[in-house]
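2024-03-11 09:14:02 DEBUG pipeline.ingest accepted 1 chain
2024-03-11 09:14:02 DEBUG pipeline.ingest length=156
2024-03-11 09:14:03 DEBUG pipeline.predict start
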Amino acid sequence: MIWKPNVTVAAVIEREGRFLLVEEETEEGIRYNQPAGHLEPGESLIDAVVRETLEESAWRFIPEYLVGIYHWRDAPQEITWLRFAFGGRLDGHEAGRALDAGIIAAHWLDPKEIAALAPRHRSPMVPRVISDWQAGRRYPLDLLNYHAPERYCSAP
């Protein structure tokens, strides 16, 4: 059996001292997370975070930098997560857009409200991503290299 981590993306978005989190139904009950989700086959990390943010929050997101890369093993579930978290700016809201299945709502929460929800964070990556963003961690997007399958050639 080949082991593979679950690769996910997340958007950390701050507006007027509040951060965008989504409230979602999970197997463990209602949890709070950044707009986040799985990388799909053939998709770049940038495309994935733009898509996931729109699907989960109805906000159009423009990634401008990488906040960090996070590795977490959920021991009870025997799942390893590799999360790429991006910061950037918003480019509008699609009011009335249906959110992904399982997403209850998108909320703008201040750090105290987020801390109060700690028992219901989706993972320990939620507060860490915000903490890193607040600490000013910003890495250029050109740190990431995407080689589209249709452009890849194995011949020299």
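2024-03-11 09:14:41 DEBUG pipeline.report The chain is about 20% helix and 40% strand.
2024-03-11 09:14:41 DEBUG pipeline.predict end
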